[in-house]
């Protein structure tokens, strides 16, 4: 009969000389208790950390924290790092969250997790419905934040306890570090313990978190001789001698773990604590850890040793049935081994699933694991991998063991590692997937699978090591007999990685070479599309006009039936807009490209073409259509769990669409949100440049020049060259900032260089880049003749493109640089054009400029009307400085600004709707005026309001009305 396990010393008695730490716990619990409606009133901090070397009592302190939290009727969520399972992505996150979620049925889970279900399903071990999306790391973090916040509010107050944080898997540690600052606003306390000297390199942000938030850890100290004596005498009696107790302190070094284990051993031997007992005491102390522990274990028998070694390989906690199967022990032998190990205080019942076991202390598990002979340990891992798969624990659990097994050219190993890597990618754990796929390549895979494995590895490394991605994909392309569709995906990802690593020219060359070699027409079109995409992004493409002609000829032949054809058509639409071809051409190609659908989240195609197609509508005076496409694209990203670079691009450039409509406050909010997202994602430089350009342009429109300058300097804007095509063009935007500061000469020099670059590429559309307009403004004080020439050329180019907003802006600048009596008519033409567009801010600018010119000409009544119109438009747009200028002009003319006459609403009035309907039916302005009993000028003003409210020009009215009628019941 095996010995019954010795009852441990009570938790309170193991916490000798831990009064300071216990007081900190109690204080934190008191703060957590003070809640109003589940929200803390006052919190000094929400993170409590205890640090110390192995054996200093961190686990005992955690056990006491758990007990006190339960006594307070707090909800406790707990997890523990494992030395042998650090490579298991999100293992600790699952420990923390799964128990609470496991109590919910499928319907409850759906309601509880809401739209985040599919994003976090793979992370939390839930079953996703339909094709499982592959969320990006940012989306996973935000999804886990949502889950933990919901759990906290449902079960408040909550104490989250994490022991052995130094062994936490990197993915869980990264999430915890990003989430921890939020807990001060939640009824949640985080308690962690760790060994400071064993924190992994990726714990740098955690160290910073502790320093920045006043959460300096409580460093646990060794026990004093008096503390050791107290523990020993509690166990064997007060008669234990001072010298004996002092020798116990020397033998254990003051380690609480060793002291408690020694005291229990002394009690089991019924020692009295005399000098005569010192040799036995030293023998017991030596058997607590290291070689002594292994000798003690070996005395328990071969079967028990094998079970303990298997348990160490599996890691805590573990299922005893699984350990018995791996150790090849029958039920009776396994039960006997477990009882012996319990009695020897090596194993104990786990805190997780019922029936699980764990080691009494991590030191014991580490000592046993490291004592196993290398060859035998490898064999145990190999057997464990097979047993784990057979038991239904899944490839990810098995893969952890396969990483410890030498390469043996086994296809089944490669299959398991690839399946586990796919599961990790579905959970956004790219680094964990990278480790498994690297090992799969080393196995190695069968020759016919090598290209696919390299491709999968490249997908895993793209966000964390793009240079390695390029290397892997080049190797994949070099493999023989690669499937055409796989090859196309490899090329797309290779060229994308090259673009992200400042190798745009090489990306173009790779795509061109693959297009030349492709024999499959569909694949050839894909390669050509990639070539055109990166050529357009490349700032130093000297063959741009030739490529445009090639693209135009190719697009003319395509009906748009396949997705490959539609991508070419979308690129043709974008190129036509850049070149300033008639907007009807670019809009027609855009419509054709979208017929049949175009996803923003196709992992093998990217979002560049759908985004560019959406912007064709913006430049073509149909920004409402662009907004619809951006909303759809952003919703796609969110649904797929992509909360990183894609969402950052979508938000920032959607802000640009708002800017073009004149919704400046909405533009600023959207761009700042995009920049906030981009700042959270490593390596999203392009999205930041887009966002910085758009925000500076928006701030200038709102009259906040000093703020724009501070923002530009903070991002080194204007000083750092950008090796990609960004819109709005950063150099042109920086020149606009210089002009706002009165630095005309610097602006002129910069804009001349921009013009030379764009004309060399054949990109002549002032709607896309108004460099000529800004250059005219810069030259006006010193070279008025040149200024007028540039403005006139811009007007000609704008008329060729045909968008009323572009023509109106060009005429406005021409009026400004022309001056004198001639300017009045030019201003009137500018207003007339802009009234036919949705560009509300530019219309307000032109109206105020026209009003000022009319005032100078002495036509005060007409000036007042124009200035009032411009003032209302500026206020509605959120352009404070422009509104102030209108008031100044009114005051200078002896006119008093009136209250705004019209409320700013987005819905059409009955008169506006009827005007729109009659216009779509093809009636001339005079006919509409007669029908509605209005003047022709009144009809034009109603139509202008319609265009601004709907975000479209006359060309988009029919589509809006058709959609409106379909939506009506």
Quick synopsis:
The protein is mainly alpha-helical. Helices cover 66% and strands 4% of the residues. The longest helix has 19 residues, at 137-155.
Can you walk me through this structure?
This protein is mainly alpha-helical and 969 residues long. Helix content is 66%, strand content 4%. A five-stranded parallel β-sheet has the order 4-5-6-3-7, with helices on both faces. A hairpin with a 7-residue loop joins strand 8 (347-349) and strand 9 (357-359). Helix 23 packs parallel to helix 25 (484-500). The longest helix has 19 residues, at 137-155.
Secondary-structure map:
Elements: H1 11-14, H2 19-33, E1 35-36, E2 39-40, E3 47-51, H3 58-71, E4 75-80, H4 91-102, H5 106-113, H6 117-124, H7 137-155, E5 158-163, H8 170-179, E6 188-194, H9 204-212, E7 218-219, H10 225-236, H11 242-252, H12 256-268, H13 278-286, H14 290-298, H15 302-314, H16 320-327, H17 331-343, E8 347-349, E9 357-359, H18 362-371, H19 374-390, H20 395-402, H21 411-426, H22 430-442, H23 447-461, H24 466-477, H25 484-500, H26 504-517, H27 521-537, H28 544-556, H29 563-579, H30 583-594, H31 608-619, H32 623-639, H33 645-661, H34 664-680, H35 685-701, H36 705-714, H37 730-740, H38 744-761, H39 771-779, H40 784-801, H41 804-818, H42 822-834, H43 840-856, H44 860-877, H45 880-892, H46 910-920, H47 925-932, H48 936-950, H49 954-967
Parallel strand pairs: 3-6, 3-7, 4-5, 5-6
Antiparallel strand pairs: 1-2, 8-9
Helix pairs in contact: 2-3, 6-7, 10-11, 10-12, 11-13, 13-14, 14-18, 15-16, 15-17, 15-18, 15-19, 16-19, 19-20, 20-21, 21-22, 22-23, 23-24, 23-25, 24-25, 25-26, 25-27, 26-27, 27-29, 28-29, 29-30, 29-31, 30-31, 31-32, 32-33, 33-34, 33-35, 34-35, 35-36, 35-37, 37-38, 37-39, 38-39, 39-40, 39-41, 40-41, ...
């Amino acid at each position: 009969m095996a010995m019954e396990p010795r009852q441990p010393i009570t938790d309170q008695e193991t916490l000798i000389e831990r009064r300071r730490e216990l007081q900190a716990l109690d204080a934190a619990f008191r703060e957590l208790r003070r809640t109003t409606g589940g929200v803390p009133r006052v919190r000094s901090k929400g993170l409590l950390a205890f640090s110390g070397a192995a054996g200093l009592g961190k686990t005992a302190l955690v056990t006491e924290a758990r007990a006190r939290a339960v006594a307070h009727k707090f909800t406790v969520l707990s997890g523990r790092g494992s030395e042998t399972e650090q490579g298991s992505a999100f293992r600790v996150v699952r420990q923390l969250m799964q128990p609470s979620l496991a109590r919910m049925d499928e319907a409850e889970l759906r309601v509880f997790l809401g739209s985040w279900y599919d994003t976090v399903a793979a992370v939390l071990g839930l079953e996703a419905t339909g094709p499982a999306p592959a969320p990006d790391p940012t989306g996973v973090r935000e999804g886990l934040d949502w889950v933990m916040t919901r759990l906290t509010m449902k079960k408040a107050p909550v104490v989250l306890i994490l022991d052995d944080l130094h062994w936490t898997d990197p993915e869980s540690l990264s999430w915890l570090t990003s989430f921890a600052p939020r807990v001060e606003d939640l009824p949640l306390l985080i308690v962690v313990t760790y060994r400071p000297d064993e924190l992994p390199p990726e714990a740098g942000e955690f160290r910073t978190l502790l320093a920045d938030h006043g959460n300096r850890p409580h460093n646990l100290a060794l026990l004093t001789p008096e503390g050791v004596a107290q523990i020993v005498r509690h166990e064997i009696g007060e008669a234990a001698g001072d010298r004996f107790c002092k020798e116990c302190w020397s033998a254990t070094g003051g380690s609480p773990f060793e002291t408690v284990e020694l005291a229990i051993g002394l009690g089991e031997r019924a020692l009295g604590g005399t000098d005569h007992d010192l040799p036995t005491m030293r023998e017991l102390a030596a058997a607590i850890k290291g070689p002594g522990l292994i000798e003690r274990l070996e005395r328990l028998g071969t079967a028990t040793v094998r079970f303990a070694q298997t348990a160490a390989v599996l890691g805590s906690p573990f299922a005893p049935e699984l350990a018995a199967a791996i150790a090849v022990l029958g039920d009776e032998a396994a039960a006997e081994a477990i009882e012996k190990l319990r009695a020897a205080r090596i194993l104990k019942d786990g805190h997780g699933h019922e029936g699980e076991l764990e080691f009494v202390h991590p030191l014991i598990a580490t000592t046993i694991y490291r004592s196993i002979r290398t060859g035998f340990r490898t064999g145990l891992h190999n057997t464990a991998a097979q047993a784990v798969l057979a038991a239904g624990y899944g490839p990810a659990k098995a893969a952890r063991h396969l990483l410890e097994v030498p390469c043996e050219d086994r296809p089944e190993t490669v299959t398991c590692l690839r399946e586990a890597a796919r599961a990790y990618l579905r959970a956004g754990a790219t680094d964990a997937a990278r480790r498994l796929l690297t090992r799969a390549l080393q196995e190695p895979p069968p020759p016919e699978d090598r290209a696919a494995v390299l491709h999968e590895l490249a997908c895993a490394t793209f966000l964390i090591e793009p240079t390695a991605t390029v290397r892997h994909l080049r190797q994949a392309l070099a493999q023989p007999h690669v499937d055409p569709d796989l090859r196309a995906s490899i090329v797309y990802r290779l060229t994308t990685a090259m673009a992200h690593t400042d190798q745009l020219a090489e990306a173009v060359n790779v795509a061109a070479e693959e297009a030349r070699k492709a024999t499959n027409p569909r694949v050839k079109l894909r390669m050509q599309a990639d070539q055109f995409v990166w050529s357009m992004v490349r700032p130093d493409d000297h063959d741009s006009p030739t490529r445009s002609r090639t693209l135009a000829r190719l697009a003319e032949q395509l009906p748009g039936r396949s997705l490959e054809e539609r991508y070419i058509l979308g690129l043709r639409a974008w190129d036509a807009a850049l070149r300033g071809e008639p907007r009807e051409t670019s809009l027609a190609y855009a419509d054709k490209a979208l017929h049949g659908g175009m996803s923003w989240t196709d992992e093998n195609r990217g979002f560049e073409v759908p985004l560019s197609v959406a912007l064709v509508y913006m430049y073509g005076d149909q920004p409402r259509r662009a907004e619809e496409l951006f909303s759809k694209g952003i919703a796609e990203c969110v649904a797929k769990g992509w909360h990183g670079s894609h969402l950052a691009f979508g938000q920032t450039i959607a802000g640009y669409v708002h800017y073009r409509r004149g919704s400046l406050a909405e533009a600023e909010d959207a761009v700042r949100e995009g920049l906030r997202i981009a700042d959270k994602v490593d390596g999203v430089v392009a999205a930041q440049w887009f966002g910085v350009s758009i925000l500076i342009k928006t701030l200038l429109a709102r009259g906040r020049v000093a703020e724009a300058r501070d923002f530009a300097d903070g991002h080194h804007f204007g000083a750092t060259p950008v090796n990609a095509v960004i819109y709005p063009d950063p150099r042109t935007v920086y020149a606009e900032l210089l002009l706002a500061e009165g630095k005309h000469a610097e602006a002129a020099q910069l804009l001349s260089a921009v013009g030379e670059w764009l004309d060399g590429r054949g990109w002549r559309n002032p709607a896309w880049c108004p460099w000529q307009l800004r250059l005219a403004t810069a030259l006006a004080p010193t070279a008025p003749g040149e200024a007028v020439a540039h403005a006139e050329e811009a007007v000609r180019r704008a008329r060729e493109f045909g968008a009323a907003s572009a023509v109106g802006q060009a005429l406005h600048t021409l009026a400004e640089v022309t001056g004198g009596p001639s300017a009045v008519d030019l201003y009137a033409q500018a207003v007339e054009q802009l009234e036919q567009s949705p560009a509300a801010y530019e219309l307000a600018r032109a109206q105020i400029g026209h009003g000022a010119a009319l005032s100078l000409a002495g036509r005060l009544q007409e000036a007042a009307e124009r200035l009032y119109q411009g003032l209302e438009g500026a206020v509605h747009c959120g352009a404070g400085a422009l509104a102030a200028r209108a008031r100044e002009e009114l005051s200078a003319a002896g006119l008093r600004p009136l209250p705004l006459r019209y409320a700013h609403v987005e819905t059409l009035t009955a008169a506006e709707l009827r005007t729109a309907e009659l216009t779509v039916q093809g009636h001339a302005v005079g006919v509409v005026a007669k029908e509605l009993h209005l003047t022709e000028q009144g009809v034009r003003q109603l139509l202008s309001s319609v265009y601004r409210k709907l975000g479209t020009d006359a060309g988009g009215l029919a589509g809006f009305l058709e959609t409106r009628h379909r939506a009506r019941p």
